[in-house]
Amino acid sequence: MQPFTTHSGLVAPMNRVNVDTDQMVPKQFLKALTRQGFGRTLFYDWRYLPGEKPNPEFVLNFPRYKGASVLLEPQPKLARASKTEAPL
């Protein structure tokens, strides 16, 4: 893999403090055999309302951030979950 020095892409702001890793990819989606296809499950509990209807108040559902390739938290303070599979 070649390192990169420049990335051009749309940035979506994640204005939440202490984002728990269980919110990033909820535990029910960690049963996959591969690490591919997590895009739909990213922040699932915040991103969707009951019935998998997109939550119009969640930033990744805003039309202007469709296709964002960078998620930026202004005050990054990642909270570690007890069920995390990977070390931080």
Kindly describe this structure.
The chain has 88 residues and is mostly loops. It has a domain at 20-72. The protein has helices at 21-24, 44-47, and strands at 11-13, 48-49, 53-54, 70-72. It has a two-stranded parallel ribbon with strand order 1-4. A two-stranded antiparallel sheet has the order 2-3. The chain is globular. The relative contact order is 0.29. The mean pLDDT is 80.
Feature tags:
single chain; two-stranded parallel ribbon; two-stranded antiparallel ribbon; 88 residues; little secondary structure; 2 helices
The helix tally amounts to 2
Which parts are unreliable, with pLDDT below 50 for 5 consecutive residues or more? none
**Which radius of gyration do the C-alpha atoms yield?**
14 Å
> Portion of residues in helices?
under 10%
> How many β-strands, per DSSP?
4
Largest sheet: 2 strands, parallel
Amino-to-carboxy terminus distance = 21 Å
Secondary-structure element pattern, one letter each = EHHEEE
Strand content: 5-15%
Mean pLDDT: 80
Strand order in the sheet with the most strands: 1-4
Overall geometry:
globular
By secondary-structure content and strand pairing, the structural class works out as little secondary structure
Provide a brief overview of the structure.
The protein has helices at residues 21-24, 44-47; strands at residues 11-13, 48-49, 53-54, 70-72. The chain has 88 residues and is mostly loops.
